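Quick one: structure for this chain?
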Amino acid sequence: MKKSIIAIALIGVLAFASAGSAMTFITIGSGGVGGTYYPLGGAMAEVLTNAGIDVKATSRATSASRENCRLVASGRAHIGMTMGSALYQAITGTEAFEPDGKLPLQILMSMYPAPQHLVTVKGSGITKLEDIKGKKVSVGAPGGGDQILTNLILKAAGIDPEKDFTRQQLTQPEGVMALKDGNVDAVFWNFAAPGSAVMEVAAQREVVMVPLEEELVQKIITENPFLIPYTIKVGTYDSIKEDIRTIADSNYLVVKNDMDETLAYNLTKTLIENRDKFMNITTQAAHFVPEEASVGITEFVSGAKKYFQEQGIEMK
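Got it. Here's what it folds into:
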């Protein structure tokens, strides 16, 4: 009898240990406070942890796209949020990633388009892109994808950030404070609209959004086919009284190209089928549907492909 009890107890312990060992720990590289990545990463971690797929997920603040690509490629994060421009450079080993070489990244899912914001305040004298010459301008944080996109815009416009204005490289929270305090004249930001950083500035200063000329928009897109034209509509921000023409980058969740197929499948399925839980973070979660989430600029990881194919999406 005692042997039977011991055997049953031992089986129970082994079963518990087996169940415990099946748990997969996932780290999500998000972004800085003030943008969309940071709160969205936290919400995704919570959803994945509570989805019953044997995943324990946490989100960590980062300087966003470029850092996230490197974290995922090195195995220090399992999912990374990144803009398409940064991802393109990472997988081709070009520009900012030339020292790294081609990184072994694939797409888990496409998230949403994020327009580039050129933000200033009333009285700065900046109403068009060329007006930033001679001013103090933040081009975005080092390591962040918004700086990559800023540099693409400046290059297409023939503006040299080393010579034509006083360049600063501020995080979003730093940029907010600098604009409010008058320590910079303008900032470049990239995030889904409306962005909380813009609204924080608008709480104290009259925000002015600077549009890009249509000819410049088309030139940028021709030179960088991973970008799309975009219009920030009237009403997106209270102080914006006319549509603002700009460009947008796509935003992706990326993983290392050797992620386990079942894990990648479960992650993709869970995030897409729980999109309603992200709507209070960003209305851009409306884009979390198979038809849009399956469109990317490079290969999708095998488990994601499997999910999208089950939804009737033809994957290349």
